[in-house]
Amino acid sequence: MRRISDPGRKYFYKGLSDSERAAFEAGVALATAYHYLLGLPLPRRPASIKRLLVHMSEGLAAQPFRERVKVRVKRLRIGKSAYKYGRIDARNIEVSVVVRYGRSRVWGRLSWLEELDYPLMRIEKVVRGQ
Fold first, then answer.
1. What is the pTM of this model?
2. What CATH number has the domain bearing residue 85?
3. CA angle 40, 42, 43 (to 5 degrees)
């Protein structure tokens, strides 16, 4: 993938490194996914859920500097009543993102951590100078 020029770079702190900016962009991507998708009703058919997740991933990947975004939902238990349906919540959403900014790449992840009882957004890997 070729590097993309950033006309917005002049508005950021001049001492910001490529890896720091990539980490910032990863945080933006994860927060967008979490706050935008939380509460979204999910179709009953697994094939429909799969298609929806692909489209959500593609939409989030359209943001600047995103190389890859993957949205997953852990297995749902949906009742048979017309009023029972699955939805995205903090415990079942998982998002992974790869951001490339300048010569750096950052891998970020959002997932529920039982140990913390919290949906943690975190940086998993940083590669500089690519």
1. 0.88
2. 3.30.1300.20
3. 150
